[in-house]
Amino acid sequence: TLRVRNELPTRSSIHWHGLIVPADMDGVPGLSFEGIRSGGMYRYRFKVNQHGTYWYHSHSRFQEQTGLYGPLVIERRGGERQHADREQVVMLWDWTDMDPERIFSVLKKQSDYFNFGKRTVGDFFEDVQERGFGATLAERRMWGQMRMNPTDLADVGAHTYTYLMNGIAPSNNWTGVFARGERVRLRFINGSAMSIFDVRIPGLKLTVVAADGQDVEPVTVDEFRISVAETYDVIVEPKDDRAYTIFAQSIDR
């Protein structure tokens, strides 16, 4: 049972991302319930029949983009299948000082407005020298037929967004404490509005043991890609007594 009081000046709602719940316990305002009015309270009540790493966020306009979100960890009865001595939630997000309503409006009018990597005439001639006129023209024709730019891997990039880890900007350096030799479970959550991240920890192997709250056969990788709203549980075993750096790099670099 969760009682949510809305202290925003407008209606709100909460979506329990990935949880199987009745429609009116996970509703979108105007669809399956009226929403939580400003100053009002709504009681969410449902049986939890899942465990794992999930998260919650608003389903009302762009409230999620402005900060109404958070991690939701449900512990498995009897303990996790993959033992860990310590765990940390690592929640990734994209923050902007620009009004999300404005971003949406701009993208509807001009989808490549925030794309700062557009090809120029100078690039065309450099490509001709490197690849030849025919190959360069064919590539330009291909992109033209797709009606998108070669660099349009993300609609909005780092010129507009600041990428946060657990609500902290890169310059502020979020830190998770561990002891040498521990098995550490990192619960990665991509709570961003539209950013896809490539995640790695140089010097450490990452063993993925769960995806979207579901246990999986462990897979050890050097790097993994986490898309919007996905979650991954990763086990790391730092052997050395030193600091390690978590890199979460947006897909458009």
Structure, explained:
- There is one protein chain.
- By secondary structure, the chain is α+β, with helices and mostly antiparallel strands.
- The chain is built from 3 helices and 14 strands.
- It has helices at residues 100-109, 121-131, 133-146, and strands spanning 2-5, 15-17, 41-44, 52-57, 69-74, 86-95, 162-165, 184-190, 197-200, 206-211, 214-221, 223-226, 231-236, 247-250.
- The strands form 4 sheets. A 6-stranded mixed beta sheet has the order 7-6-8-13-10-11, with no helix packed on it.
- The longest helix has 14 residues, at 133-146.
- The mean pLDDT is 94.
Number of alpha- plus pi-helical segments: 3
Poorly predicted regions are: none
Task: Estimate what percentage of residues fall within beta strands.
Answer: 25-35%
Mean pLDDT: 94
DSSP E strands, number: 14
- The run of helices and strands is EEEEEEHHHEEEEEEEE
Helix percentage range = 10-25%
Rg on CA atoms, Å: 22 Å
In which order are the strands of the major sheet placed?
A: 7-6-8-13-10-11
> Largest sheet at a glance?
6 strands, mixed
Instruction: Categorize the overall geometry.
Output: globular
Distance between the termini: 41 Å
What would you call the structural class?
A: alpha+beta
